[in-house]
Amino acid sequence: MRLAVPTADDTSSLRQIVRQSPLPLVADVHFHFDRALEAISAGVAKIRLNPGNISDRRQVRAVIAAAKDAGVAIRVGVNEGSIASRSGQAARQKDLAKKTLVKLMVDKLAEYLDVFQQADFHELVLSAKSHDAFTCVEVNRQIARRWDYPLHLGVTHAGTSATGMARSAAALGALLCDGIGDTIRISFAGDPLPEVQAGLELLYSLRLRDRKGINLIACPTCGRLQMDLAPLVEQVRKALSDITEPLTVAMMGCVVNGPGEADSADVAICAGKGKAVLYRQGKKVRVVSADQIVEAVIGEVRMLAKQSKTKG
Fold first, then answer.
1. End-of-domain residue from the set 146, 171, 205
2. Are residues 151 and 273 in the same domain?
3. Do residues 146 and 106 make contact, with C-beta atoms less than 8 angstroms apart?
């Protein structure tokens, strides 16, 4: 779990949070090396540091020494927006003209790592982020080839959940399928809870984490649908959000793909005009009317979830 600690008030609370947290904590430090020292003293497992935001290398070395003594890891990050000269837009454009963006990011990370290597500090996690999915893929592939450190993946400034979901899935999915990446963060503008939900779904989809809860499969809108399925799917999703057993639920709206999905689902419906066939683990159970679909699916799922708990 990562916490931002921009002020001394924030780090003063860390010691108590560390004691009570069931998870290792990472302190997100940007500009003030004192916050990094305070976070290390409070007992965090790792700090997130951008050396580009701390111009005095003596301060960076002080943080490295404290982390080394305490056995604390450091995530060293570089973002697209922080790689070029801070002297203005003209200088940035000049830098970008000389080198590709990916090469600039890799070179800047190498510059940072020199400081850590000179101090014989190797408890590092590397990160290179951009708002552009293609750039993220390319820069992380190059980093993975060059260094043997864990990699934290993310598309930064990805926008709303609509754009952020697509950009993050494009970049992180490609890298994770290549075996690149050890931790991830999906980043949206807004409430962080959907970030966690999207990240879990990505890991579930790539079979990198065993699914917990309902795997809900549903038809897209197409000309074969004979009823308005979308509201029913949403009602089922909300009603079963508390289920933790890994059960697959298929809500299908036609006879073309419906039976096939029903064969592999724990609970399924194949809906037609005004009614639907209810399946349990590939077997037909009964026919229900349209106004009974939601209740029937919820009931079957809860019954299977209860059976699963009893067997467990």
1. 205
2. no
3. yes
